[in-house]
Amino acid sequence: MGVADVLIRRINIEDTDVITRIQAAITTEPVEIDFKRIVEEKIHRDEDASFVAEIKGKVVGYMISYIVYGGFGLDKSAWIANFGVDPKCMGKGIGRSLAHEVFQFYRKKGVKNIFTSVQWDSVDLLSFFKTLGFDRSAYFNLIKNIE
């Protein structure tokens, strides 16, 4: 299984149960996030980029993001709100594939900056975003310029 075997597609409401299971596997705790509500909001907004990664028809990762108007002192930016890869599939480029799909989507929409927030003790997650080119912003959030 490699990156070539990964299909990236738009998220849909049927994905919410597996997204919840992936999140629970990552945190090893019960998930209190209502992914169904979040996904319902995102699938009706064509300007937002929320995707899942599939291998052989099975969802193994997701990235939920949205456009922000007037946030961070910018006219238009994007925010990666939630992201996860099944722990059994980590280290195979799935997260990178999801991120690049999000970057391409927003680049076409004229978005120049993507933000996210990472707890500073989440070393693995911080390292992942840094490998994608994110860096500290003036707001203590991470930013990547995708011009």
List its traits.
single chain; 147 residues; 7-stranded mixed β-sheet
Number of strands: 7
Number of helices: 4
Helix and strand succession?
Answer: EHHEEEHEHEE
- Largest sheet: number of strands, sense, barrel closure: 7 strands, mixed
CATH architecture group name:
3-Layer(aba) Sandwich
| Widest sheet, order of strands | 1-2-3-4-5-7-6
Strand content: 25-35%
The number of domains is: 1
* CATH first level: Alpha Beta
CATH superfamily membership? Gcn5-related N-acetyltransferase (GNAT)
Summed up:
The chain has helices at residues 16-27, 35-43, 94-108, 123-131, and strands at 6-10, 51-55, 58-69, 76-85, 113-116, 135-136, 142-145.
